[in-house]
Amino acid sequence: IEPNQTEKLNVHISTVGHDEMRVTWITEDDAPAVVEYGMTSGQYPFSATGTTTSYSYLALYRSGNIHDAVVGPLKPSTTYYYRCSSDPSREFSFRTPPASLPFTFVVVGDLGQTGWTKSTLQHIAAADYDMLLLPGDLSYADFLQPRWDSYGRLVEPLASARPWMVTEGNHEIERIPLLEPRAFKAYNARWRVPYDAGDSPSGSNLYYSFDVAGGMVHVVMLGSYAGFEAGTAQHEWLRGDLARIDRGRTPFVVALVHAPWYNSNKAHQGEGDDMRDAMEALLRAARVDAVFAGHVHAYERFTRVYGGMEDQCGPVYVTIGDGGNREGLADEYIDPQPKTSVFREASFGHGRLQVVNATHALWTWHRNDDDQPVVADQVWITSLASNPDCNNRAGAGAQA
């Protein structure tokens, strides 16, 4: 690093509204919270100034300066070149998501920072996509704060180039009674989500929603570790968020949550049941198409389910907590396999959801196989908004 320059760590981006992007980065020294950007490499005619925060943990660790600036308005499907804190030594670039379909999500949970993680990230980077969705358990820092820094460096090549939209897992809590009573301290400081943007602000960094593809897809990021019972802030917000969706212009709705609501693996049995009991009826009434979860370190896909039984108007449930964490795989399943469980396998990998048009999306799970991504499970998901049987019955349970 040259004199008077400060190393940039942990650069990552996330979408804000329909035409802005939040850039988050960390400097070891004082530096301006400024992002300069443009559509030509080396030329930055635009700039945005944001805010700077930091945090300490157990009086032993102090983070760097965590900067956060929102850039835009931006054009869709466009590559922007940018630099942080006016540092000429490192130029980054990102591509904005398209404003229409098709749209490709990568979905990967329980990522961690192991050799398995590196393989997963290489496989993700090997094929193009528009946005990454992560249903919790990011760094596995587990109270050791420098692990948050090393995780940020590991994911930076991908997370600085495409928006990463995340929600929290249990490994983000990091609460220690009396000593560190505030949960999610590092996560909230480092991974700011657009909870105050759009038409349905949640007021909490632990759950939020957003639209992509010009409103064709609505994504709901739920918080397994925030209050979720009827009457809680999250439950009330979710009810209002889902009620606002016009399925005539938003044919696909997907949700993410950390602890799975359906799970035939022996690991973490029943841990998502209370949340499912509190919220499942809201999702079915809104005809949510698919729910992606993590937590269990394996892959499993269920058919459309509601109330524990197959239901053509319920969501498809997928567990994808197999990104590569250091705890290893959960390879013991309950036998016999439930009729609602279509495919299950304890292997590391990642998923892709390609929303092709207003009626069809292709879900693919790629297994990490000898350092090659291999398609191991694939299914077409038809939008429930296009199913007349479900539209006719949509009111059932709407007041749940």
UniProtKB/TrEMBL annotation:
The keyword rRNA-binding does not apply. Its EC number is 3.1.3.2. It comes from the Eukaryota. GO terms for molecular function: acid phosphatase activity; metal ion binding. Keywords: Glycoprotein, Hydrolase, Signal. It is an enzyme of class 3 (hydrolase). This is Purple acid phosphatase. It comes from Aegilops tauschii subsp. strangulata. The lineage of its organism: Eukaryota, Viridiplantae, Streptophyta, Embryophyta, Tracheophyta.
